[in-house]
Design brief:
By secondary structure, the protein is mainly α. The chain has one domain: Orthogonal Bundle (MetI-like fold), CATH 1.10.3720. The chain has 15 helices and no strands. Helix 1 packs across helix 14 and helix 4 crosses helix 8.
């Protein structure tokens, strides 16, 4: 008995491949142009940081520096006390990230794992605080911190991070809610306390959400200009945004834009580094690996 082998028609798939090739080409060209437009300001910033002060006064501006002024990256430390500003910003941002992760993760774990009376009410009340703009609480906070003599210290910039953030609590709470209940049941059978389950089960499985919160908290603290201006008065305690803003003040007849671009390039280094580290954690911290 002869068998007839089924053959797959070659016509339609080949026509489909030919049909979609122009679409892929257009998509690739669009993506390439978009990437170029996104990187153009970054390239212009790096190029400007390597121009001399004399070249900065030329119009129209040159796309590439005529002479590469690498000395700008050393002059910024003499003109702006850049090392002190950088150190202060790292201290404040580091403690702010730690405080935000600790407090937000604890509160979010409580909202996600406990089903007590009024749980939804308190969670909605917490989210409603996101509608309050910072100028609405700026004056009461300033009066409070001045009464406890925290003015001209790093404490007003660090301590509020240890009381959580409504947005970060919401983000972590939604992530904690997706964790399987079987993992926590197994932990209770092994005699783990709630705090230990939060530390050994919830946090390791929540690496993607924690990395996202860490990036948001670091960027917010690193780029914050208003809060340091309010609470800091000593020049040796200024942060990087305050020092960069001073480059455009009236003490310079013409703002040194080349030094400002140097400061901007160096200010990007911690953010890019943190994002690279957090991105790796995001890939490695897949929740399904914990279930296995």
């Amino acid at each position: 008995m002869s068998t007839v082998k089924a053959t797959r028609p070659l016509g339609p798939p080949s026509r489909l491949r030919r049909r979609f090739k122009p679409v892929k080409l257009v998509s690739f060209i669009t993506l390439l142009l978009t990437t170029f437009l996104m990187l153009l300001p970054l390239f212009f910033m790096v190029s400007t940081s390597l121009k001399s002060k004399r070249e900065m006064l030329k119009f129209p501006p040159t796309f590439l520096p005529e002479s590469w002024a690498w000395s700008n990256y050393t002059d910024i430390f003499e003109t702006l006390q850049f090392g002190t500003l950088y150190k202060n910003s790292l201290i404040i941002a580091g403690f702010s990230v730690f405080g935000t992760l600790l407090s937000s993760a604890l509160v979010a774990y409580g909202f996600a794992r406990y089903r007590g009376r009024g749980n939804n009410f308190w969670f909605i009340l917490l989210l409603s605080t996101m509608m309050l703009p910072y100028p609405a609480i700026m004056i009461p906070q300033f009066v409070l911190f001045s009464q406890i003599q925290w003015i001209d210290t790093f404490l007003p910039l660090i301590v509020p991070a240890f009381f959580g953030s409504a947005y970060n609590i919401f983000l972590l709470r939604q992530f904690f809610s997706t964790l399987p209940e079987e993992l926590f049941d197994a932990g209770r059978m092994d005699g783990c306390s709630e705090l230990r389950m939060w530390r050994t089960i919830a946090l390791p499985l929540s690496a993607p959400a924690l990395a996202t919160v860490a990036i948001f908290a670091f960027i917010y603290s690193w780029n914050d200009l208003l809060t340091p201006v309010l609470y800091l008065s000593s020049s040796d305690k200024f942060t990087l945004p305050v020092g960069m803003a001073s480059l455009t003040s009236s003490r310079f007849r013409i703002p040194p834009w080349h030094l400002l671009m140097v400061a901007s390039v160096l200010a990007m280094v911690p953010i890019v580094t943190l994002f690279a580290i957090a991105q790796k954690q995001f890939v490695e911290g897949i929740v399904l690996t914990g279930i296995k």
